[in-house]
Design a protein that fits this description.
The protein starts with a helix and ends with a helix. It is globular, with a radius of gyration of 17 Å. The chain is mainly alpha-helical. The chain has one domain. The protein has helices at residues 3-21, 25-35, 51-67, 73-96, 102-135, 140-160, 162-191.
Length: 192
């Protein structure tokens, strides 16, 4: 496997993970980067850089950001966002992986991209639920802000330095899961 192919897979997986934080932000970042000439899209994905796609993605991103700041709507939105994040993860991964056999490209996009988005989305759902129950939803805007920042940062990093984006993602997920497990352990001890 060439370095370029490995780099495209890393970029696709990092962008897919960013979809787990916010569904539309990575697609919007990709659209802007492709339009500016900073991102090459795989064959068949030129639509991402089109003006109608840019307008739709900007609108969807804005609505998604706003909805996550409405208490309890954010938890309801997670039920829709979870399958949407998986599909978006597959799309962004597939749009980045080029120069390999189509069956391998789509296997990587579906399993790797969909799996990365699902894993990150699952962690964010858990974090939001813990925040909702621990603070009655008062801290959820902080969770939403952190998720938005993570999605935007990871999306830009995936385009600029994909391997670094994957390392940052792994470190971040480790820290989040560690905190979640500590919070669950403390809650179970307090409930005993």
């Amino acid at each position: 496997m060439s370095f370029e192919i490995a780099l495209s897979i890393a970029a696709g997986l990092a962008l897919a993970a960013a979809c787990g934080f916010r569904v539309f932000t990575p697609l919007l970042v990709m659209s802007l980067a492709a339009r500016a000439g900073h991102l090459d899209l795989a064959s068949g994905f030129d639509w991402i850089a089109s003006t109608p796609a840019l307008v739709a993605l900007a609108t969807a991103t804005g609505l998604e950001i706003l909805a996550y700041y409405v208490p309890w709507v954010d938890n309801l939105l997670d039920t829709v966002a979870t399958p949407a994040a998986v599909v978006a993860g597959m799309i962004v991964a597939g749009s980045q992986i080029a120069d390999i056999a189509p069956w391998l490209r789509w296997t990587t996009a579906i399993i790797g991209g969909g799996g990365m988005a699902a894993g990150v989305q699952g962690a964010t759902v858990l974090a939001r639920q813990l925040s909702s129950f621990a603070t009655g939803g008062v801290a959820n805007p902080l969770v939403s802000t952190a998720e938005m920042g993570a999605s935007l940062s990871l999306s830009v990093m995936a385009i600029v330095a994909a391997p670094l984006a994957l390392l940052v993602l792994a470190a971040g997920l480790f820290m989040i899961l560690r905190r979640v497990l500590r919070a669950r352990s403390a809650a179970s001890v307090a409930g005993s």
